[in-house]
Amino acid sequence: MKKLRTFFHCFYKSIASPKYYLDILKTKPRFTVKYYVVLTLLAALITTLAISVRIFPIAKQDALSFSQQIKNLYPSDLTITLKDGQWTANKPEPVIIPFPKPSGSELGDFENLAVFYKKGTVDDLKTYKTLVLVNETNVVVTDPSGTITSRPIKNFKDMEITADSINKFSDMILKYTPYFLITILALRSAFFYLIGNISSIFFVGIAVYVFAKSNKKNLKFVEALRIGAHTITIPIVLQVIIESAGFALPSSYWFFALNLILALVVAMKLPVSKLEAKTPSQLNTQN
Fold first, then answer.
1. Is residue 1 part of a domain?
2. Sheet containing 80-83: which strands, arranged edge to edge?
3. Side-chain-facing half-sphere of 230: CA atoms under 13 Å
């Protein structure tokens, strides 16, 4: 609880009080590192929750549509059996399974998800406009970029593909897709805030260091970086609001520019004399 109180105290002062940076620089660098990590992860969490509220219903509806199309497109009387590195089907070849298309998706020239044809060749990928071609010995897969990969059928486990197994797979897609997308969003947000802003802090630190030296202020480069890591609080707060609300700004340079301006304002307040060391607990008692 004490550490949490210290964080929010530092959060508020990093926004509201340029003079507070004098006390921040009296602590050890790890204080700033911990503050930055907590700040960015908290920003990522809030952004993820806010965006999830918007996209979850849409993702669930798309998953439902995709799941239902898979169920409808796979023939109810089709059975494909894979055993001992060979496959058989209870229908004449080529066995064609169309590609389900969720609303708004772009699948290029693909019309079919898979074609089972023992005499099929790589050229038949284009002939049947299929994503997957299963011939007598290999499973051949292509993608919109034209990359083709293959895997021997003998490497697959024995299985039987029926309408019932497809239905179970479709239900699994329906159940887990929204949560999978939210997980991806959370990882993206964490990377964006935690790692993506480091370059901004670095260049702001350089500018602050040069400014301090040109004005004969006693400031180390690490301390200049620390200033940038704390002044970035306001840009991050604004970024969270923008991301959460779904707004799109025409340029991303505002983030760096705002952080630079705030850091230079703080640098102007710095004294010429050497700073006296302080602990985080002492920071929490500052007014």
1. no
2. 86-89, 80-83, 159-161
3. 34
* Residue that the structure tokens 């040069």 belong to: 210
Which candidate, 122, 123, 98, places its Cα nearest to that of 111? Answer: 98
Domain count for the chain:
2
Beta bridge pairs of residue 160: 81
- What pLDDT digit, counting tens, does each position of 138-168 carry? 999 987 777 889 999 989 899 998 989 888 8
Instruction: Give ∠ CA 42-220-36 in degrees, rounded to 5.
Output: 5
**Do residues 150 and 186 share a domain?**
no
Please state whether beta strands 130-134 and 112-116 pair in parallel, antiparallel, or not at all (unpaired).
parallel
Q: Let me know how many helices (H) and strands (E) the chain has, helices first.
A: 10, 8
Give me 271's structure tokens.
Answer: 């004294």
List, in sequence order, every residue forming a beta bridge with 89; answer none if it has no partner: 80
As a whole number, the mean pLDDT across the chain is 86
Residue owning tokens 């508020």: 12
Q: Are 115 and 132 in contact (CB under 8 A)?
A: yes
8 A C-beta contact, residue 17 and residue 143: no
Tokens of 13: 């002062």
Distance (Å) of CA 223 to CA 7, 170, 203, 245: 19, 55, 13, 34
Any idea which residue has 């059928």 for tokens? 153
Alpha-carbon distance of 175 to 168, in angstroms, equals 11
Confidence of residue 260 (pLDDT cuts 50, 70, 90): very high
Q: Look at residues 130, 161, 192 and tell me which one is the last residue of a structural domain.
A: 161
Q: Is 170 inside any structural domain?
A: no
Domain range for residue 83?
79-161
pLDDT value at residue 182: 86
130 - beta bridge partners? 112
| DSSP designation for 127 | H
34 and 106 share a domain? no
Tokens (6 digits) for 270: 């710095």
Give Cα 117 distance to the centre of its chain.
Answer: 39
